[in-house]
Write a structure and sequence with these properties.
By secondary structure, this protein is an alpha+beta fold. The chain has one domain. The chain contains five helices and eight strands, in the order βββαββααβββαα. The strands form three sheets. A four-stranded antiparallel beta sheet has the order 5-4-1-6. It has a two-stranded antiparallel sheet with strand order 2-3. A hairpin with a 5-residue loop joins strand 4 and strand 5. Helix 2 packs antiparallel against helix 3. It binds zinc ion (ZN). The site of zinc ion has 7 residues, from loops.
C-alpha cells in the first residue's frame, strides 16, 4: 500500500513523515499460552504478540457515537508501518490543495496535482505506490487513478489499473 486518506481528529498532531509511534511498540509475551504450547490461537505459536495503538481516526463506530464534525481529512503513507504526511484538513478540497502546495510525495519523489489528489481522496481514498505501464513507465498510483473512469474500492482500483493499462506487472516501490 502507499497512500491512504484517513479521517483524523482535528486536534491530532504528530510529526509529519514519521512512522506513527503506536505502530512501533515492543512485542509482549502472549498470555494465552505456555512456552511449550505451539498450538496457541492467539499468537499462533509465536509466544509473543504485537500491541498497536491506533491514531485518533474515525471508525465506523465513532461515526455513530460522535458524528463526523470533529474529524478532518489527512493523508497517510502506509509504505512503512504508517504515518501522516499532511496536516489534518477540514475538507477533501483543502487537503488536496495542501498536498499540492507542499509538494507532498505521492510516490518516491513524485508529487501530484490538485485534481489528481482530489480524485484519489474522493474516489478510492487509497492508492498503491506505483504502477508500471509500457506507455507511461513507472508512475504513482495517485496519478494512475486519472486513467480510471470511476473507482469505488481499493480492490477494484487495483483491478481497474491493471485492466486499463494491460499491466502484467504491479510494482510496490518505496
Ligand atoms: Zn500464545
Amino acid at each position: 500500500m502507499s497512500r491512504e486518506v484517513r479521517r483524523a481528529h482535528k486536534k491530532f498532531k504528530f510529526q509529519l513523515g514519521e512512522t506513527w509511534w503506536g505502530y512501533l511498540l515492543a512485542a509482549l509475551y502472549c498470555q494465552s499460552c505456555t512456552e511449550e504450547d505451539d498450538d496457541c490461537a492467539t499468537c499462533e505459536g509465536e509466544h509473543s504478540v504485537q500491541p498497536i495503538v491506533e491514531p485518533p481516526t474515525l471508525s465506523h463506530d465513532h461515526v455513530f457515537t460522535y458524528g463526523e464534525e470533529e474529524y478532518g481529512w489527512q493523508m497517510w503513507q502506509t509504505v512503512s508501518e504508517g504515518g501522516p504526511i499532511s496536516i489534518v484538513c477540514d475538507s477533501p478540497e483543502e487537503l488536496a490543495h495542501w498536498l499540492e502546495d507542499n509538494n507532498a510525495s505521492s510516490f518516491g519523489y513524485d508529487t501530484s496535482t490538485y485534481e489528481q489528489w482530489l480524485k484519489m481522496i474522493k474516489g478510492p481514498g487509497w492508492s498503491i505506490s506505483g504502477v508500471y505501464t509500457p506507455e507511461k513507465g513507472i508512475q504513482s498510483g495517485v496519478n494512475a487513478i486519472e486513467d480510471l473512469a470511476e473507482v469505488v474500492s481499493a480492490e477494484e482500483m487495483i483491478h481497474d489499473v491493471l485492466e486499463a493499462n494491460k499491466i502484467d506487472k504491479e510494482r510496490e516501490i518505496l
